[in-house]
Predict the structure.
Amino acid sequence: MINSRLIRLYQTLSNKELRVLKNWVRSPIHNKHQDSIKVFDFLASRRIISKTTVQKKRLFTYLYPSQKYSEAKLSYLMNYALELLKKFIGYYEAVLDDFDCNKKLIQTLQKRNLHQLARLELEKLGHKVDSIATRNAKTSLHLFEIEENKFELKGTQNRSIQTNLPKIFNNLTDFYSLSTLKYACTASSHKNITPQDYNIRLLDAILVDAAASKHPVILLYYNIYQSLETKEHSHYFETAEKLFLEHYQLLNKQEQNEVLLLLINYCIKRLNTNEKSFVKKGFEWYRWGLEQAVLMQGYLSRFAYLNIVGLGLKLEEFSWVAQFIPTYVHFLPQQFQENYQHYTTAKLFFKQKEYTKAQQLLTQIEYDDIFLNLDSKTMLLEIYYEEKSWDSLEALLVSFSRYLQRKQVIAYHKKVYKNIISLTRKLIYIKPYDKAAKKALLEEIKTTNPLAERDWLLQQIELL
């Protein structure tokens, strides 16, 4: 039962939503099935929701103390409760959206020929939209709809007077430009992961218009898009950074997070082309996102958690990373917390060259995440090499190769780790006095792609 759709959806509710739900399910307008009230009372009575506390038989006994357990009867009631909960969430979101409620009220007043009252409500709605902080696509759409209603109320009565059509066009264009540029940025970023091609109609015209725009959010998305699309690093990124810092509060929370990740992804993209200054820039953006509560949306992505640790260690921010690991691990989804704290702590010890501590952690468990396993094996490879544990290293290279054959690893990543294994084998057996062989291997390391740990391999060649 713990994995049922009803329980999973119920667990997403905030305390405020739970309080409203309690009254909502008791309303005969919304709920015709009295037993479903008891289902929600049962869930509310649990101090914690767990596999034990929400067993089906416990719920059935709570509902029907004197009846014999019936799976079919309970399933029917749970399905009814699920549908009720979905309707509640739809209702709750609709009630929260004042704009839609007010817009429908104005439209209804128009239909009833109560134009004066409609105009008063429209004026109130206009003041409300003007007072909000955001200036994103949704705001422009709301402003367009307000002007559209004004036109219908006023413009249709006397066509000879000056209309508000310029405002209609401006707000509608802003809405379309903001929406298109936002998703064009996402598409451009996405092209780094998949070869999918996107045909975005009218984008060229929008870019020309955006370059001359005075709307700060349009300019922000414009500069991010140009940054992502330009192969070489350009001034667009610095402009986007500046605009984001100055105007990020004009975006809603989700959009702030999305733009921050676009900026970070740009830094990582430039880092992958060996532009090392972007290590610090990417790390600083992650840290800013944590400090301003922009990076997290109630939880922290496990990929962000790993990237923050990785960039921090590249910069040798060991003290900061040592504090970050235990502090923020609790913001990860629960199923990842133990393994990710274990792995990142091992990575910290490894970068600090505390190899004994790192090795103890890395050899304790095999991680559920294949990429954690691949990276942990790479760390062990480097530890064994640097400590000259040749037998352990040879055994690891064999088991590492078998692991790659056995597991379903993306072809690109499989090639990366096969190259590490192959070059490390050559490194082991090269004779230090053989200058020609060293030169040939050095050139092979420089030109082999794809390859992780290139810097480490090059360093070992220099030490021979």
